[in-house]
Amino acid sequence: MTIKIVLADDHTIVRHALCESIQSQSDMEVIGQAHDGLSAIQLIRQLLPDVVVMDISMPNLNGIEATREIIHDFPDMKSIALSMHSAKKFVAEMFRAGAKGYLLKDCDMDELAEAIRVVCSGNVYLSPSVTGAVVESSIKAAPQQEPSAFHALTRREREVLQLMAEGKTTKQIGISLHISPKTVEAHRLRVMDKLDIDNIAQLTKYAIQEGLTSPEP
To answer: 20 to 30 Å CA-CA from 158: which of 25, 27, 143, 150?
Structure first.
């Protein structure tokens, strides 16, 4: 049986390299590629792959939120994070969203292929290079550590924050999320109040640190 895969990454060269490597596996086929979380969701609804290999920091909708929506709509879908982020909070939130695997982008193709086969068999895959970081972070974590954006903010507030950080206007955010400019403004004020941040530059920095968006435009 051929494993059908959708790739989601905002870097074209990364997607193409991954596609070429995966296609070299006799039991795997890339049936679609997405450049952000929104297009990934649309592709998955159209193509119904077995596995989605998902980056975390992507424009318009990050990989964590996209995974959460995909798994909500398709509970049996297998999602694997392939990210540059090794910190515990990213791993934890991706698994909370419903992912079944997590690897770092410096892994080799053999490990990615193994992860794809493992999750397709119904198991969970966590890269050894991530496991160490998660264990170390858990041991050293301070009780007073600030909660992540995925706990401090609602889903809609995170979506508004991401689009704000990406330079979208209130009107553009409203169109993208199908809400009124007045509602966007209300969310913006709540985000600033909850985070105690009163300027876009700091909000953008926060969004990047939390993996809600990529540092590249």
So the answer is: 143
